[in-house]
Amino acid sequence: MPILVCTRHLANIGPCEPVEFDGGDVRAVLDAAAKDHPRLKSYVLDDHGVLRKHVVIFIDGVMQKRAGVLDAPLLQGSEVCVFQALSGG
Amino acid sequence: MSERLILSTRKGLFDLRRSGANQWRVAEKHFLGSPVSISLRDPRDGALYAALNLGHFGCKLHRSDDDGATWTEINAPSYAGVEGDNPPVLKMIWSLEAGGADQPGWLWCGTIPGGLFISKDRGDSWELVRSLWDQPSRPNWFGGGFDEAGIHSISVDPRDSKRVVIAVSIAGVWETADAGASWALLGHGMRAEYVPPETAGDPLNQDVHRLVRCAAAPDYYWVQHHNGMFRSTNGPDAFSEITGVKPSAFGFGVAVHPKDPRTAWFVPAVKDEFRYPVDGQLVVTRTRDGGATFDVLRNGLPQSEAYHLVYRHGLDVDESGDLLAFGSTTGGLWTTENGGDEWVCVSQDLPPINALRFV
């Protein structure tokens, strides 16, 4: 399964240590993680389920472009990292 | 006289208690380091609410049912499902007010980008007030200091909780008489200098910075506007401009005496592109005759090289009408216990103060 890990800025909101969640893309992994971390999506996604402007996602160490990132396909063992974008201050 | 003051600051919620005449101490701090845009203590049930604007991670709302000992994150208003060419996204919780005593659990919430929300369950869930959002004029509302319009003033009529007046930067003054089912654009009598002269009187163009009404005389309103000060003695649709006020008629905050509608306070600044105290001297202006004359109150306030700006929610008066406080963008906090004749500095070292109120 893919692995999700969040910035420590999201302590108590999402997993700050790597945790496996089932899902074939980033959206599905976030949906799966939301069962254990019900506030996570509202911190990472905006009112319409779009990645927030100042949140950035890496997959296996590669920064992803915002457009389409939630649909980015994941492999078994892919690591999804959620960070705050420094553009947000 | 109030014994408690809560500050919504750039670096958290500060809960201050009065420890003596003009003496205040920080009793509790919450969300230290996080920007708090507005807070509320519901007088009906004692619940505390704090709206956080986390930047990267959006706007959040927290409630405490034990007066700040513990907090629970509750749902923030959301524009989910609201369509548009650019679907609206919550940018700031800018105003938060309790409904009437006969409306337990009701809260009104004003936001940027211009939506008013209502909760009937103490903030557990929120509903966009579509009757206002769907106004044909709303696409023409525009931002004042922000990219989008915002609702910063919400005043529930103490005589009839279904009547609510709001003010919008920038879309003037609106009133509902039926708890939000329908709205009327009011605010006639104000004028706008930042639009072509032929549209200066259009009530939709009015950039009200802050609207307050007298608790004991609910038809008496005061407005600090982008280009002046206005007052109505007869409801929210009959404003008159107060002119000739020194040192300036520009500012953000206004407070009205809870028992004497003719008494109001302002914190002036150099208009409008500069926004610092005139001559670097921090003053409060006070009228006690409905705006005919003003006192310039300086005692206890810095009169040299002082560059404090006071935001629209940064000035408040308590139920006695004698105790006031104001807080600045540079972390200064002053109080008075005699209506402004003498001020005492509580601190000049707090974080930038977005809002404060006595509770």
Structural class of chain A: alpha+beta
Q: What's the count of strands of chain A?
A: 5
Beta-strand residue percentage of chain A: 15-25%
Find the biggest chain interface: A-B, 18 and 16 residues
Oligomer: heterodimer
What does this structure look like?
The complex is a heterodimer of chains A (89) and B (359). Chain A contains two helices and five strands. Chain A is an alpha+beta fold. In chain A, β3 and β4 form a beta hairpin. The longest helix of chain A has 9 residues. In chain A, 33% of the residues are buried. The longest helix of chain B is centred in the middle third of the chain and has 4 residues. Chain B is globular and about 50 Å long. In chain B, a hairpin with a 7-residue loop joins β12 and β13. Chain B starts with a strand and ends with a strand. Chain B contains one helix and 28 strands. Chain B is mostly beta strands and 359 residues long. Classes of the chains: A alpha+beta (89), B mainly beta (359). At the A-B interface, α2 of A face loops of B.
What keywords describe this structure?
heterodimer; A: 89 residues; alpha+beta; 5-stranded mixed sheet; B: 359 residues; mainly beta; 4-stranded antiparallel sheet; 28 strands; 1% helix; globular
Provide a brief overview of the structure:
The complex is a heterodimer of chains A (89) and B (359). Chain A is built from two helices and five strands; from the N terminus they run E-E-H-H-E-E-E.
Question: Topology, pairings included?
Answer:
The complex is a heterodimer of chains A (89) and B (359).
Chain A (H helix, E strand, L loop, with lengths): L2 E4 L12 E2 L5 H9 L5 H5 L10 E5 L2 E2 L15 E6 L5
Parallel strand pairs in A: 1-5
Antiparallel strand pairs in A: 1-2, 3-4, 3-5
Chain B lengths: L3 E6 L2 E9 L2 E8 L5 E6 L6 E6 L5 E6 L7 E3 L17 E7 L8 E6 L3 E4 L7 E2 L1 H4 L16 E7 L7 E6 L2 E5 L7 E3 L21 E6 L7 E5 L2 E5 L7 E3 L7 E7 L7 E6 L14 E4 L7 E3 L17 E3 L6 E4 L5 E4 L7 E4 L5 E6 L1
Antiparallel strand pairs in B: 1-2, 1-28, 2-3, 4-5, 5-6, 6-7, 8-9, 9-10, 10-11, 12-13, 13-14, 14-15, 16-17, 17-18, 18-19, 20-21, 21-22, 22-23, 24-25, 25-26, 26-27
